[in-house]
Amino acid sequence: MTSAIFWGYVHIILFVFWLGAELGVFVSTALMRRARMNYEARAALLKVATITHVVPRVCFALILPVGIELTGAINVYPLTPGLQTASWAISAVWLLIIIAHVRAAGFPAASTLRHLDLFFKAVAGLGFVVYGLNSLATGAPIDETWFATKLFLVGLVFWTTIAVDLCFRPFFAPFAELERYGPTPEREEAIVRAATHTMMAMVALYLLLAAIAFVGKVKPF
Fold first, then answer.
1. What global pTM score does this model have?
2. pLDDT of 126-149, one tens digit each?
3. Residue 54 — left, alpha, or beta (φ > 0 → left; ψ -120 to 50 → alpha)?
4. So where are the chain's domains?
């Protein structure tokens, strides 16, 4: 088995687990909008969505170094050992942040870890977008149009995952009030609005991932 086949296989597996888990989160979020469901059932769906969402986060963190290894294996861009080592180191730190965030749920540290995760995604997304757009505009440092396009789309994925998080954040306050004080039209409207905005951001994420897979496999440019 060549390294290109191996890293290509791992890359596909990570995409499959990412999309599969995100579908579970999407369905759970859609069901949580139903006001006719009792609070306990909706709370159980929220727990399922929260736990399941860890899988896409882990896959995303691993796709970064795996993608770089695949890039070198198919000779699209010359890699240095330093770049490969740095990508795995960044991925390891990112995974530690994700794990720490999950374990800190309900504690003050969770907010700090969440903001740290969002900050990293914002900066990484900017780097990929700028790198991809500059390569598309000038042909350097990436002269393969399809690969430059893929890098640009990856940058958008970083930002879209931030959008998913920000869209879902307003869900928690009215949902907590639902348990304490019971349902009202205003609370249900806020819950539905946050869940719907989250689902829209997730659809954008699905489309971006589909576009990345298409560009990477078909190489239309």
1. 0.91
2. 999 999 999 999 988 888 899 999
3. alpha
4. 3-218
